């Protein structure tokens, strides 16, 4: 009977051990889940873009260390003769934060369905993110605005006006509106700009005079030629179009409905020219009158355009601005590592200490700056090498002195200090 009870106790202990082992295995798998699909796609894009070999191992991409920031991106395509020159600029991100983006989470099985149902109740998509917006800016006519994704847009001139769902807004000469909540502004049709391009004028070194003269010439061309199509811009996601409140009745905009979803805004007060003698008002950049000629970004654009045009910029003729887009973007900054196994004779160990263990792998650290698209896709844009954290090594005194006995070290008597007790 005693042997039987001992056998039952051993059997119960074995079953309990098996249950504990299986639960520990499941918990370890849960603690190290596979990478989200967005990170996996980012890794594949980097490997494909860099053309890495199969013997290289790419690791890292920890979402817990990902930094998220917002910035304004400028994209242009300039045509000079038969040559197309793309230009892309990015403003410095003023602030990087640790943000828990929705597509960073791993969702599978019942958890995915449960989370999808909870987001559906809140009226959100599964991978919905807060889209960044451009700062408010002013646009002046004559031009036309095509509105995209502006279902809840408000129109104030200066008082609120119920205009319904707007798709197109025509601004006459002198009409100025402030756009708020827009995510991007782009050029719908190419425009032709005259040459030569003179970027400096005596007496006004602080102004981007070359771009101001181009803008003024472009405005005069649209004003004088009634048969020429208006300058056309596409604005994505604006929340409101407002005119600046003023006590003067001449500055208030007048609304005229041309068709369903199409309105025209006009003003009695003409827009002052950039080359006017009124020193109280700084020269502005048409059609974005919220940018004045002394803006540092505008001066940078002028220097860039002069370098792109080169010697042809001083010749008679013209060039085309084929594409132009200004957009607010969300960016992710992450670090990753590339590892390669060292082959025999591939590394030089001449300056390597003999006492150190020689590594079998070579590692290089990089940082990727990627753009977050609306569907939760991450597109890499810039990869730069970074210097990893260097660990300081300590060496024992016996190793540093070559394991020499202290009895053989010469005794050095220092000068006496009479202030020492």
Automatic annotation (TrEMBL):
Keyword flag Signal: yes
Record keywords: Signal
Region of interest: Disordered: 266-292
Signal sequence extent: 1-23
Bias (Polar residues): 279-292
Stored InterPro entries: TUNICAMYCIN_INDUCED_1
Keyword Signal attributed: yes
Protein name: Tunicamycin induced 1
Taxonomic placement: Eukaryota, Viridiplantae, Streptophyta, Embryophyta, Tracheophyta
